[in-house]
Amino acid sequence: EQPTVSGKEVSDAEYNDFIDKGKVSEERLKDIAGKVKNQEPLSDREKEIFTDNTSEINKIIAEQPDVSETVDESAEIAKADEDFLNKKTELETKKNQEIKKVSKPNLVLEEIEDDAFLGPKNRVSNIQKHDKIKKDFEQLKQVLDCIYG
Q: How much is the mean pLDDT over the chain?
């Protein structure tokens, strides 16, 4: 099992493995690749390892995602989410304002005699009651359409 090397100096044992056997852990190569990519200084031992493993370290660098691109994408996604939530809030506010504009119908049940409603002597009164009920129904329908859409 390899010791964790990320951010640590190359130990004597690790350096001797490199000098004597040419062995370098994958984690050390990735650590050096990260430093090279971020233009951080390398220790003398890291420079030797880099010189001997340049192509492998360059391959690691090429495979790593560009952090600035990832940050840009994350920022774009966050901005899109914010824009979406702002638009949603704006539309909900407008919807609620429109619902408030619709007058609430004053629905009152009136008990009437059958013959009074249907009788010829009250025909004008019956038409007015019918028109009022129809108007109240239309207003109620508008409110329900706004709410349940």
A: 81
Spatial CA neighbour of 57 closest among 38, 32, 39: 32
Contacts of 24 (CB under 8 A, 6+ apart): 14, 17, 18, 49, 52, 53
Contact indicator for 2, 13 with CB cutoff of 8 Å: no
* 8 Å CB contact between 35 and 46: yes
- Cβ contacts of 117 within 8 Å, gap of 6 or more: 126, 129
Residue 90 C-beta-side C-alpha neighbours within 13 Å? 6
What is the tens place of the pLDDT at every residue in 66-120? 666 666 677 888 888 888 888 989 998 888 888 777 766 666 666 655 555 555 5
Confidence at 1, pLDDT banded by 50, 70, 90: very low
**Is residue 104 within 8 Å of residue 135, measured between CB atoms?**
no
